[in-house]
Design goal:
Number of strands: 23
Largest sheet: 7 strands, antiparallel
Strand content: 35-45%
Number of helices: 1
Distance between the termini: 83 Å
Order of helices and strands: HEEEEEEEEEEEEEEEEEEEEEEE
Length: 296
Protein backbone atom coordinates (compact mmCIF):
# COMPACT_ATOMS: atom_id res chain seq x y z
CA UNK A 1 0.00 0.00 0.00
CA UNK A 2 2.83 2.36 0.87
CA UNK A 3 4.50 1.70 -2.49
CA UNK A 4 1.24 2.36 -4.35
CA UNK A 5 0.81 5.66 -2.50
CA UNK A 6 4.38 6.65 -3.40
CA UNK A 7 3.78 5.85 -7.06
CA UNK A 8 0.51 7.83 -6.96
CA UNK A 9 2.20 10.96 -5.58
CA UNK A 10 5.11 10.61 -7.99
CA UNK A 11 2.83 10.61 -11.04
CA UNK A 12 0.65 13.35 -9.55
CA UNK A 13 3.67 15.65 -9.10
CA UNK A 14 4.94 14.71 -12.56
CA UNK A 15 1.55 15.63 -14.04
CA UNK A 16 1.41 18.93 -12.15
CA UNK A 17 4.91 19.90 -13.26
CA UNK A 18 4.16 19.01 -16.85
CA UNK A 19 0.85 20.88 -16.73
CA UNK A 20 2.60 23.96 -15.36
CA UNK A 21 4.82 24.15 -18.44
CA UNK A 22 3.10 26.05 -21.21
CA UNK A 23 2.42 29.44 -22.69
CA UNK A 24 2.00 32.13 -20.06
CA UNK A 25 0.55 35.51 -20.98
CA UNK A 26 1.01 38.91 -19.39
CA UNK A 27 1.25 42.63 -20.03
CA UNK A 28 3.99 45.17 -19.29
CA UNK A 29 3.03 48.65 -18.07
CA UNK A 30 4.77 51.79 -16.89
CA UNK A 31 4.75 51.86 -13.06
CA UNK A 32 3.74 55.55 -12.93
CA UNK A 33 1.53 56.25 -15.94
CA UNK A 34 0.04 52.79 -16.28
CA UNK A 35 0.58 52.97 -20.03
CA UNK A 36 1.68 49.81 -21.86
CA UNK A 37 5.40 49.43 -22.54
CA UNK A 38 5.98 48.04 -26.04
CA UNK A 39 8.95 46.07 -27.36
CA UNK A 40 10.27 44.89 -24.00
CA UNK A 41 12.97 42.21 -24.25
CA UNK A 42 11.84 39.24 -22.10
CA UNK A 43 13.87 36.11 -21.24
CA UNK A 44 13.68 33.11 -18.98
CA UNK A 45 16.62 33.80 -16.66
CA UNK A 46 19.75 31.93 -17.82
CA UNK A 47 17.68 30.23 -20.53
CA UNK A 48 17.34 30.44 -24.28
CA UNK A 49 13.60 31.11 -24.47
CA UNK A 50 12.42 34.69 -24.86
CA UNK A 51 9.72 37.01 -26.15
CA UNK A 52 9.02 40.65 -27.02
CA UNK A 53 6.03 42.65 -25.82
CA UNK A 54 3.66 43.93 -28.52
CA UNK A 55 2.63 47.57 -29.00
CA UNK A 56 -0.09 47.15 -26.37
CA UNK A 57 2.43 45.71 -23.88
CA UNK A 58 1.06 42.17 -24.13
CA UNK A 59 3.31 39.13 -24.48
CA UNK A 60 3.28 35.35 -24.34
CA UNK A 61 6.17 33.10 -23.36
CA UNK A 62 6.56 29.36 -22.86
CA UNK A 63 7.67 28.81 -19.28
CA UNK A 64 6.89 27.05 -16.02
CA UNK A 65 5.41 28.97 -13.12
CA UNK A 66 8.64 28.35 -11.21
CA UNK A 67 10.79 30.16 -13.79
CA UNK A 68 12.08 33.68 -13.31
CA UNK A 69 11.74 36.09 -16.21
CA UNK A 70 14.08 38.98 -16.97
CA UNK A 71 12.48 42.14 -18.42
CA UNK A 72 14.69 44.68 -20.19
CA UNK A 73 13.68 47.82 -22.09
CA UNK A 74 15.27 51.08 -23.16
CA UNK A 75 14.63 53.77 -20.57
CA UNK A 76 13.57 51.34 -17.82
CA UNK A 77 15.28 49.47 -15.00
CA UNK A 78 15.74 45.77 -15.72
CA UNK A 79 13.44 43.61 -13.64
CA UNK A 80 13.17 39.96 -12.61
CA UNK A 81 9.70 38.53 -12.00
CA UNK A 82 8.51 35.03 -11.13
CA UNK A 83 6.57 33.58 -14.06
CA UNK A 84 3.65 32.97 -11.71
CA UNK A 85 3.31 36.76 -11.24
CA UNK A 86 3.46 38.14 -14.78
CA UNK A 87 -0.22 38.91 -15.37
CA UNK A 88 0.84 42.55 -15.03
CA UNK A 89 4.47 43.60 -14.84
CA UNK A 90 5.16 47.21 -13.88
CA UNK A 91 8.46 48.68 -15.02
CA UNK A 92 10.13 51.67 -13.41
CA UNK A 93 11.70 54.39 -15.54
CA UNK A 94 15.48 54.57 -15.41
CA UNK A 95 16.97 57.91 -14.43
CA UNK A 96 20.54 58.25 -15.67
CA UNK A 97 22.87 61.06 -16.59
CA UNK A 98 22.95 60.77 -20.36
CA UNK A 99 25.10 63.90 -20.53
CA UNK A 100 28.00 61.77 -19.32
CA UNK A 101 27.98 59.84 -22.60
CA UNK A 102 26.81 62.63 -24.88
CA UNK A 103 30.05 64.55 -24.97
CA UNK A 104 28.73 67.59 -26.81
CA UNK A 105 25.55 69.08 -28.20
CA UNK A 106 27.46 71.06 -30.82
CA UNK A 107 26.03 70.71 -34.32
CA UNK A 108 28.62 68.91 -36.50
CA UNK A 109 29.89 70.78 -39.54
CA UNK A 110 29.46 67.66 -41.68
CA UNK A 111 32.07 68.64 -44.23
CA UNK A 112 34.00 65.40 -43.83
CA UNK A 113 32.80 61.84 -43.16
CA UNK A 114 34.36 58.40 -42.81
CA UNK A 115 32.72 54.96 -42.58
CA UNK A 116 34.13 52.48 -40.09
CA UNK A 117 33.35 48.85 -39.32
CA UNK A 118 34.34 47.11 -42.55
CA UNK A 119 31.03 45.25 -42.90
CA UNK A 120 29.43 44.43 -46.25
CA UNK A 121 26.39 42.68 -47.67
CA UNK A 122 27.23 39.01 -48.28
CA UNK A 123 25.30 35.72 -48.21
CA UNK A 124 25.86 35.16 -44.47
CA UNK A 125 22.74 35.68 -42.31
CA UNK A 126 21.74 34.82 -38.76
CA UNK A 127 18.20 33.60 -38.03
CA UNK A 128 16.65 34.37 -34.64
CA UNK A 129 14.22 31.46 -34.46
CA UNK A 130 11.76 32.77 -31.87
CA UNK A 131 14.15 34.40 -29.44
CA UNK A 132 14.84 38.14 -28.96
CA UNK A 133 18.61 37.98 -29.28
CA UNK A 134 20.68 41.14 -29.17
CA UNK A 135 23.90 41.02 -31.20
CA UNK A 136 26.26 43.87 -30.38
CA UNK A 137 29.38 44.87 -32.27
CA UNK A 138 32.18 46.75 -30.51
CA UNK A 139 33.68 49.83 -32.17
CA UNK A 140 36.94 50.82 -30.45
CA UNK A 141 38.05 54.42 -30.35
CA UNK A 142 41.03 55.44 -32.48
CA UNK A 143 43.15 58.57 -32.78
CA UNK A 144 42.34 58.49 -36.50
CA UNK A 145 38.80 59.57 -35.62
CA UNK A 146 39.87 62.78 -33.88
CA UNK A 147 38.93 64.89 -36.91
CA UNK A 148 35.54 63.17 -37.26
CA UNK A 149 34.36 62.57 -33.68
CA UNK A 150 30.58 62.78 -34.22
CA UNK A 151 28.48 59.66 -34.88
CA UNK A 152 26.27 60.48 -37.86
CA UNK A 153 24.77 57.16 -38.99
CA UNK A 154 24.56 53.51 -38.11
CA UNK A 155 24.54 51.23 -41.15
CA UNK A 156 22.99 47.77 -40.74
CA UNK A 157 22.80 45.10 -43.45
CA UNK A 158 19.66 42.93 -43.31
CA UNK A 159 17.67 40.41 -45.29
CA UNK A 160 13.91 39.99 -44.95
CA UNK A 161 11.38 37.54 -46.35
CA UNK A 162 8.50 39.94 -45.62
CA UNK A 163 7.73 43.61 -46.16
CA UNK A 164 8.08 46.23 -43.44
CA UNK A 165 9.68 43.98 -40.84
CA UNK A 166 11.22 45.84 -37.91
CA UNK A 167 14.23 45.54 -35.63
CA UNK A 168 15.48 47.64 -32.73
CA UNK A 169 18.83 49.41 -32.83
CA UNK A 170 20.56 49.60 -29.44
CA UNK A 171 23.53 51.81 -28.50
CA UNK A 172 25.50 50.75 -25.42
CA UNK A 173 28.35 52.20 -23.43
CA UNK A 174 31.29 49.98 -22.46
CA UNK A 175 31.36 48.74 -18.86
CA UNK A 176 34.46 48.10 -16.71
CA UNK A 177 34.71 44.49 -17.94
CA UNK A 178 34.64 45.53 -21.60
CA UNK A 179 31.09 44.24 -22.10
CA UNK A 180 28.03 46.22 -23.25
CA UNK A 181 26.90 48.48 -20.41
CA UNK A 182 24.03 50.97 -20.19
CA UNK A 183 21.91 52.22 -23.07
CA UNK A 184 23.29 55.53 -24.31
CA UNK A 185 19.93 56.54 -25.80
CA UNK A 186 16.77 56.80 -23.69
CA UNK A 187 14.29 55.98 -26.48
CA UNK A 188 13.60 53.05 -28.78
CA UNK A 189 15.14 53.27 -32.24
CA UNK A 190 12.82 51.11 -34.37
CA UNK A 191 13.98 50.44 -37.93
CA UNK A 192 11.62 49.27 -40.68
CA UNK A 193 13.24 47.37 -43.55
CA UNK A 194 12.22 46.48 -47.07
CA UNK A 195 11.79 42.94 -48.32
CA UNK A 196 14.97 41.34 -49.63
CA UNK A 197 18.56 42.37 -48.99
CA UNK A 198 18.91 45.90 -47.71
CA UNK A 199 21.55 48.35 -46.54
CA UNK A 200 19.77 50.33 -43.81
CA UNK A 201 21.17 53.75 -42.91
CA UNK A 202 19.87 55.05 -39.56
CA UNK A 203 20.34 58.78 -38.91
CA UNK A 204 21.69 59.35 -35.38
CA UNK A 205 22.57 63.04 -35.62
CA UNK A 206 19.73 64.18 -33.32
CA UNK A 207 21.32 62.30 -30.41
CA UNK A 208 24.55 64.37 -30.57
CA UNK A 209 26.74 61.35 -29.90
CA UNK A 210 30.51 61.40 -30.15
CA UNK A 211 32.83 58.41 -30.11
CA UNK A 212 33.66 57.74 -26.43
CA UNK A 213 37.30 57.28 -25.44
CA UNK A 214 36.69 53.64 -24.51
CA UNK A 215 34.60 52.83 -27.60
CA UNK A 216 30.95 52.03 -28.17
CA UNK A 217 28.66 49.05 -28.82
CA UNK A 218 26.00 49.07 -31.55
CA UNK A 219 23.41 46.34 -31.06
CA UNK A 220 20.82 44.65 -33.29
CA UNK A 221 17.78 43.38 -31.38
CA UNK A 222 15.25 40.97 -32.89
CA UNK A 223 11.64 41.86 -32.16
CA UNK A 224 9.58 38.71 -31.60
CA UNK A 225 6.25 40.35 -32.46
CA UNK A 226 3.36 39.15 -34.59
CA UNK A 227 3.98 41.50 -37.54
CA UNK A 228 7.52 40.09 -37.95
CA UNK A 229 6.52 36.42 -37.94
CA UNK A 230 6.78 34.18 -40.99
CA UNK A 231 7.04 30.45 -41.70
CA UNK A 232 10.46 29.10 -42.64
CA UNK A 233 10.36 25.95 -44.80
CA UNK A 234 13.33 23.67 -45.38
CA UNK A 235 14.17 20.18 -46.59
CA UNK A 236 15.79 17.69 -44.21
CA UNK A 237 18.67 15.41 -45.16
CA UNK A 238 16.08 12.68 -45.63
CA UNK A 239 14.26 14.85 -48.19
CA UNK A 240 11.30 15.61 -45.92
CA UNK A 241 9.85 19.13 -45.93
CA UNK A 242 9.70 20.74 -42.48
CA UNK A 243 8.69 24.21 -41.27
CA UNK A 244 8.91 26.41 -38.20
CA UNK A 245 7.99 29.93 -37.15
CA UNK A 246 10.74 32.52 -37.21
CA UNK A 247 10.96 36.30 -37.30
CA UNK A 248 12.18 38.85 -39.84
CA UNK A 249 14.38 40.62 -40.59
CA UNK A 250 17.59 38.67 -40.17
CA UNK A 251 20.93 40.39 -39.84
CA UNK A 252 23.79 39.78 -42.22
CA UNK A 253 26.95 38.48 -40.52
CA UNK A 254 30.53 38.72 -41.75
CA UNK A 255 33.37 36.31 -40.87
CA UNK A 256 36.15 38.20 -39.08
CA UNK A 257 39.28 37.42 -37.07
CA UNK A 258 38.79 39.79 -34.11
CA UNK A 259 36.39 38.85 -31.31
CA UNK A 260 34.39 42.08 -31.09
CA UNK A 261 30.91 40.52 -30.96
CA UNK A 262 28.69 39.99 -27.92
CA UNK A 263 25.21 38.49 -27.64
CA UNK A 264 22.48 38.92 -25.04
CA UNK A 265 20.56 35.81 -23.99
CA UNK A 266 18.80 34.76 -20.81
CA UNK A 267 19.26 38.22 -19.34
CA UNK A 268 23.07 38.20 -19.66
CA UNK A 269 25.77 39.24 -22.12
CA UNK A 270 28.20 36.69 -23.55
CA UNK A 271 31.22 37.16 -25.79
CA UNK A 272 31.02 35.18 -29.01
CA UNK A 273 33.77 32.66 -29.53
CA UNK A 274 35.48 31.38 -32.67
CA UNK A 275 33.32 29.21 -34.90
CA UNK A 276 33.22 27.77 -38.38
CA UNK A 277 31.45 30.13 -40.76
CA UNK A 278 29.23 29.15 -43.65
CA UNK A 279 32.02 30.01 -46.05
CA UNK A 280 34.16 27.35 -44.35
CA UNK A 281 36.69 29.82 -42.95
CA UNK A 282 37.89 27.95 -39.86
CA UNK A 283 38.48 29.99 -36.74
CA UNK A 284 36.44 33.00 -37.84
CA UNK A 285 34.01 34.94 -35.65
CA UNK A 286 30.58 35.67 -37.15
CA UNK A 287 30.12 39.40 -36.58
CA UNK A 288 26.93 41.41 -37.22
CA UNK A 289 27.27 43.51 -40.38
CA UNK A 290 27.12 46.97 -38.81
CA UNK A 291 29.11 50.09 -39.72
CA UNK A 292 29.23 53.64 -38.38
CA UNK A 293 29.53 56.91 -40.25
CA UNK A 294 31.60 59.51 -38.41
CA UNK A 295 31.67 63.20 -39.25
CA UNK A 296 33.17 66.49 -38.09
Amino acid sequence: MKNLRTVYWYFLMLFLNFSAFGQIRGVVKDSISGQPVPYVNIWIENGNIGATSEEDGSFAITATRADKLVFSAVGYKSKKVAAANIAMVKMQELVQQLDEVRISVKTPEATRTIEIGGSKQIAHTYISGATPWIYAKFFPSDSLYSDTPFIKNAIVFTKSNIRNATFKLRIFSVNDEGFPGNDMIDEDIIVTVKKGSEKNTIDLTKFHLTMPDNGIFIGYEWMIIEKNKYVMKYKTLEGKMEQFDTYAPVIVCNPVDAANTFHFIGGKWYKRQSSKSRTNDDGKITEPAINLTLTN
